[in-house]
Design goal:
Strand content of chain A: 5-15%
Oligomer: heterodimer
Shape of chain A: globular
Distance between the termini of chain A: 71 Å
Largest sheet of chain B: 5 strands, mixed
Number of strands of chain A: 8
Largest interface: A-B, 49 and 51 residues
Strand order of the largest sheet of chain A: 1-2-3
Structural class of chain A: alpha+beta
């Protein structure tokens, strides 16, 4: 008589693999005072990883979170997963090539990093951009700002667990992206601005798509926002969460909508005017609360202002050339220049140094997402783990820009 | 161009400035020594005549001969960008004081400058690598760091990239360290 065969059990001492401490990665050794503080676990605290591959971390970001139960005690973002060394690449390419390296930094609204780069280069070369090109730049940038903010809106809802808004917001974004694709030939990384102008004039397809969209844009945006602004779960989860006061925001170097949500009306379009913005009429929406909801609301208001700007630009667009006359190979005189634009996330700045050759000697790219990511720690201390995602979504960092 | 700012800076800082105030387009530039950097920035931040409350950028620069730390500031009182250049940081042992006591937000930008140039910011509580791995040894944005795939300059000179047909342009160029006289 045979006994019935049973499936081998992992508890069976003959096949069980003995536990070994080698399975676990040793805790990193502290290199700095701050890290030593972070790695020093008190009773009941533990470290967990969020990311790198986690849908709510907006790209490839890893956050080591120190938790006590469900509460976040401290956190330490680990960067570098998307680091490509763009600054070094730019220093080893000529001035025209450097522009397209800055595109994938801010892949959600890639025209802004380009705009900052050409602004710096144009100062080095001392070239005046034709007026029509300036209007085209403002038009495309504002379109890109709307595309970025609508994506933010859907993404924030997704991080909070709502699926529908992102599907709705992609309707808007796709329309704008298709429009810009008709103009620039690219859907995401446009490489459209040139030193002294833009790559191509407005074409028929772009204009007809734009006209179509503008006739119902405001209405569509309103219906999209109604889905979230009046959603009780969304409002109650974000109100009073991650409050950033104006003084702290200034000391942390925060710019853009995140700063304006704290009540500081700082906007480069008004304070350091560039292109034709001084001639256009628009408001700078601000909020006083400084919480996640305020950061969301400021962006929604900005969409409406952008539509106003586009409307004015389309009425005032002059005729004329779209490129200044420049030699093909650019060798600016030795010097330094700083160009900056107001992007959907804050100030994009490029500091370029020329040594008289055809390549920039040093090119520093400042991305606002990098600065804003520092705030995730201070703003989510003491909150629940799930609220870390809400805080991060409201700060709206893009990892391509953070990691350069 | 904000002429009033230039004269105010010249008057307030006088001999602290290593060079006369320079202005070009909407940029104003001053140069101060390593020792004077933080006191100068503190005055610019605190005094209501200047009120440079916003630190827009902090970066390191390697000119091939020395290191520099460059700050870009913005004030609600002026439409100009203020650039504070701190030249003359020793290239072999670059050390400057940290700005984190004034602007805590400078912490990561200083970490980045440390990671890319090896500049040590004294007083930064978290000065460690930010992009590169912890065990990485060199500083990628220094001018003596060549790109590994730049065939004409690297030790693998002679290996040709697929895209490059004919003589690479760089092969005719001297492989000497690129230095900027104007920076």
């Amino acid at each position: 008589m045979t006994t019935q065969q049973t499936r081998p059990s992992l508890d069976d001492p003959r096949i069980a693999i003995p536990a070994s401490s080698e399975w676990y990665e040793p805790a990193p050794t502290a290199q700095t005072e701050r890290q030593a503080e972070f790695l020093n676990l008190r009773d009941g605290e533990m470290l967990i990883n969020l990311g790198p591959q986690h849908p709510s971390t907006h790209g490839v970001l890893r956050i080591v979170v120190k938790v006590s139960g469900e509460q976040v005690v401290d956190l330490d973002p680990v960067l570098g997963y998307l680091h490509r060394g763009v600054e070094k690449l730019c220093e080893n390419s000529d001035y025209h090539q450097a522009i397209c390296y800055t595109d994938p930094l801010e892949y959600v609204a890639s025209l802004f990093c380009e705009a900052a780069t050409v602004a710096a280069f144009e100062k080095l070369v001392e070239v005046e951009v034709p007026r029509r090109a300036q209007y085209i730049r403002v038009l495309t940038m504002e379109l890109n700002r709307i595309a970025s903010h609508t994506l933010f809106q859907g993404w924030m809802a997704l991080d909070l667990g709502g699926i529908t808004p992102i599907l709705w917001s992609f309707i808007e974004r796709d329309e704008i992206v298709d429009m810009l694709a008709a103009l620039t030939g690219q859907k995401l990384l446009y490489n459209y601005y040139r030193i002294g102008g833009v790559n191509g004039d407005l074409n028929h397809e772009f204009m007809s798509r734009l006209g179509n969209w503008m006739s119902r844009a405001a209405e569509q945006i309103d219906s999209n926002t109604g889905l979230m602004n009046e959603n009780e779960i969304f409002v109650r989860r974000t109100r009073g969460l991650g409050v950033l006061d104006a003084a702290t925001a200034l000391r942390m170097g925060v710019t853009g909508p995140n700063l304006r949500a704290s009540g500081v009306p700082f906007d480069l379009r008004r304070d350091h005017p560039y292109l034709v913005y001084p001639e256009l009429e628009f408001n700078i929406p601000t909020r006083e609360e400084g919480d996640s909801l305020a950061r969301y609301m400021v962006r929604i208001d900005e969409i409406r202002e952008s539509i106003r700007i586009i409307d004015q630009v389309l009425h005032e667009m002059p005729d004329g050339p779209i490129m200044a006359k420049l030699p093909r190979l650019i060798r600016p005189r030795p010097g330094r220049a700083f160009g900056a634009v107001e992007g959907p996330r804050g100030v994009y700045g490029v500091y370029a140094i020329s040594d008289g050759t055809d390549q920039p000697f040093r090119m520093r790219i400042h991305d606002p997402s990098f600065v804003h990511l520092q705030l995730v720690g201070p703003l989510s201390r003491g909150n629940l783990i799930a609220d870390t995602m809400a805080v991060m979504a409201s700060l709206d960092p893009v990892m391509g820009g953070v990691d350069k | 161009m904000d002429r009033a700012l230039a004269s105010a800076l010249q008057e307030r800082f006088g001999t602290t400035l290593l060079a006369p105030v320079r202005q070009r387009f909407d940029e104003t530039e001053i140069r101060v020594s390593v020792a004077d950097a933080i006191p100068t920035l503190r005055v610019l931040h605190d005094e209501p005549d200047f009120a440079f409350e916003m630190l827009i950028d902090l970066c390191g620069v390697d000119t091939g001969e020395e290191m520099q730390v460059v700050y870009h500031l913005s004030s609600s009182r002026s439409g100009d960008w203020l650039r504070v250049v701190v030249p003359g940081v020793d290239r072999n042992a670059p050390r400057v004081a940290s700005l984190t006591s004034l602007w805590p937000g400078a912490e990561w930008m200083e970490r980045e400058a440390y990671d890319m140039f090896g500049i040590i910011f004294e007083g930064n509580r978290d000065l460690r690598r930010i992009y590169m791995p912890d065990d990485y040894r060199s500083y990628p944005l220094r001018k003596d760091f060549y790109l590994a795939d730049d065939a004409s300059r690297s030790p693998a000179a002679g290996v040709r990239n697929m895209e490059r047909v004919g003589t690479p342009v760089d092969a005719t160029r001297a492989t000497a360290l690129r230095k900027s006289p104007g920076a």
